[in-house]
């Protein structure tokens, strides 16, 4: 790739400066929480993706998140997640619940974390994380990735994918992936696991979520061409 010319750099800087002055970014500016976790494909549990969630709480019971593959300036937008409380999850139609996963294990295992700025060890301490983890512990997520970044790193090709989370030991990401995340964030997943044992209350996830655990089958979106309705 050729280096950007000085003229192109100037025009790019001018464009961004002008854009900041005249355009509204109100919905984006309401994002106030950065979470990091690992998603697994609903139909292929050998494929894990590091997922950085940037979330806005529409209410105490309902959060919406945009998901990137990292927290870097050139991060790729790979999907979305909706998070609801257990109260709302229990009201969903049974057919709908198969799209949702629990967060219980993600929280108690330390896999789900508040994400500090890169290379600033200890920013998201256990004390800072506790309110968020207690809230997310009994919540449920519906996650769609529109970019299969692990197989198509350059472009978002193919249909979207339903994603799930781990619900038990031995289901998490490869050790090297977890180590890379901990090193980049200055966190210690296993240490968090031990700390959280001290403050998470007894709780059992709603088995209507994580349907794959009972059926051994995962949802996969398949393209089905239909006559255009007029």
TrEMBL record:
UniProt cross-references to InterPro entries, sorted A to Z: OBAP-like
Organism superkingdom: Eukaryota
UniProt cross-references to Pfam families, sorted A to Z: DUF1264
Membership in a protein family: Belongs to the OBAP family.
Protein name: DUF1264-domain-containing protein
Species per Swiss-Prot/TrEMBL record: Lentinus tigrinus ALCF2SS1-6
């Amino acid at each position: 790739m050729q280096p950007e010319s000085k003229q192109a750099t100037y025009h790019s800087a001018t464009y961004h400066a002008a854009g900041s002055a005249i355009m509204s970014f109100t919905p984006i500016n309401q994002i106030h929480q950065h979470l990091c976790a690992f998603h697994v494909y609903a139909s292929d549990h050998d494929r894990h993706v590091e997922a950085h969630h940037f979330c806005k709480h529409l209410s105490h019971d309902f959060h919406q998140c945009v998901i990137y593959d990292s927290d870097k300036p050139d991060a790729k937008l790979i999907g979305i997640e909706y998070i609801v409380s257990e109260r709302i999850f229990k009201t969903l139609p049974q057919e709908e619940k198969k799209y949702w996963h629990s967060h219980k294990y993600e929280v108690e295992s330390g896999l789900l974390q508040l994400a500090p700025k890169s290379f600033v060890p200890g920013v998201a301490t256990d004390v800072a994380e506790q309110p968020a983890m207690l809230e997310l512990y009994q919540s449920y997520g519906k996650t769609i990735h529109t970019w299969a970044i692990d197989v198509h790193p350059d472009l978002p090709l193919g249909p979207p994918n339903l994603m799930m989370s781990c619900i038990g030991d031995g289901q998490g990401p490869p050790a090297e992936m977890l180590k890379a995340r901990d090193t980049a964030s200055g966190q210690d997943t296993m240490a968090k696991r031990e700390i959280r044992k001290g403050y998470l209350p007894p709780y059992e996830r709603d088995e209507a979520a994580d349907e794959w655990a009972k059926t051994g089958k995962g949802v996969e979106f398949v393209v089905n061409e239909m006559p255009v309705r007029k």
